[in-house]
Amino acid sequence: MTKERYAIAKIAGIKCAALIVRSTAVSISVTPPNLYGYNDNYRPENSHVLPALIRSFYEEKEQGLPSVTILGTGSPKCEFLFADDLADACY
């Protein structure tokens, strides 16, 4: 359900940009991958993938553990982009 909301918002943005271009102005629609950055949410109960991984690495290193256990099958493919890099590219 969560992914569906993101997808609908992205598609709506693309359609709005297309309508603007047809009317008068020039517009570019950007659909970024998963973003991460300085002010990310690292709370374990509701963080996204990359901040959750970073938190796991940090906590297990602080505890002196020799490895990090990550759950899942490894089959999903994700793309990540630093938020500042997206801002630079858009500018």
Helical stretch count?
A: 3
Strand content: 5-15%
Strand order of the largest sheet: 1-2
Query: What's the story with the biggest beta sheet?
Result: 2 strands, parallel
Assembly state here?
single chain
The percent of residues in helical segments reads 40-55%
Radius of gyration over alpha carbons? Answer: 18 Å
Number of discrete domains? 2
What is the first-to-last residue Cα distance?
32 Å
Mean pLDDT rating: 83
Structural class: mainly alpha
Tally of strands: 2
Describe it:
- GO terms for molecular function: GDP-L-fucose synthase activity.
- This is NAD-dependent epimerase/dehydratase family protein.
- Residues 3-90 form the NAD-dependent epimerase/dehydratase domain.
- By secondary structure, the chain is mainly α.
- The protein has 2 domains: 1-31, no CATH class; 33-91, no CATH class.
- It has helices spanning 2-23, 49-62, 83-90; strands spanning 34-36, 80-82.
- A two-stranded parallel sheet has the order 1-2.
- The chain is elongated, with a radius of gyration of 18 Å.
- It starts with a helix and ends with a helix.
In brief, what are we looking at here?
This protein is mostly helical and 91 residues long.
Observed structural traits:
91 residues, mainly alpha, 2 domains, two-stranded parallel sheet, elongated
